[in-house]
Amino acid sequence: MSARRLASLIENWFRKHQRSLPWRAAYDPYGVWVSEVMLQQTRMEVVLGYYERFMTRFPNVASLAAASFDDVTAAWSGLGYYRRARMLRDGAVDVMTRFGSVIPATVDELMTIAGIGRYTAGAIASIAHGRLAPIVDGNVARIVARLFAIEAPLASPALMREAWVRAEELVAASGSPRDFNQGLMELGALVCTPRNPSCRQCPLRRQCAAFVSERVDELPRPKAKMATRELRIPLYLVTDRTGRVLMRRESGRLMRGMFHLPHGDTTLLTGTPLRVIAGATLGTFRHTVTNRRITFEVFAVARRPRARAGEYAWIDPAALTAIPHPSYVRKALRLAGIGK
Ligand code: SF4
What we know:
The chain is built from 14 helices and 6 strands. It is of the alpha+beta class.
């Protein structure tokens, strides 16, 4: 099967079936960059609720670079994986200082910017600038595995290597790298889905090795499953007379800068044990983060701990939207009848 034929089937399908998405209105490089970072690890329906708000708050690279870390992560609150927000802002600072506010067009230059890897560089180069650059994410790897009947398991280095080679051949044979790459991703999102793909509606069904050999359910081969970890974590709710809530600013690598409720062994954190009010369990709720299934148990605390200066702050729940915090904080406050 010729790469040219496959590429043109994908492009034509995209031109007919593409969804109307806000960043497709102008293909501005900054908008494409923000959308791609948001779409990594977050579903489209969720991203659509945040994208416009984020773009109104930070309409260009300069405004994002000038914003504080707190402002950016607060605007990101609810999208999860906050490291992405930090990297996006670091990248914007990089663009301002090294590229005079102009987002470069080549993959090589883009990959020198903080937080931009091969995938995002390919997406910005091809979708925003129309450059000939391949992109491979989970969707593309799945289509390629089925299309060419590749036996390497999902997310394995062997499959990813093969997918990059095939994606490069195909985009080189396309008439429009922008339409082709978006078409490949859109096909993965709408037609060649992980389960029950809509092969009858697929423009590639005659060329697809998995479909022709009736192996669609087998490919790509599943990856080894990560074991699920069950955790139980106590959360401590400390309020002052005005209803403000005591929160701790995280300094660890993953959640750096985010505000959390005091949790776990707070003796280690504050130097003073928290005294839980007898019988004051406010309830429990479940929260899942990748392979960790966490049961949070929320306790009311009798008195203010002597918190280490700089680590803790009293936060008005009404002002929560202005500070970066993970979504479990809202769940805990709702359980206590605080906030919305
Ligand atoms: S025919 Fe089916 S399995 Fe093959 S690419 Fe299309 S949707 Fe995916």
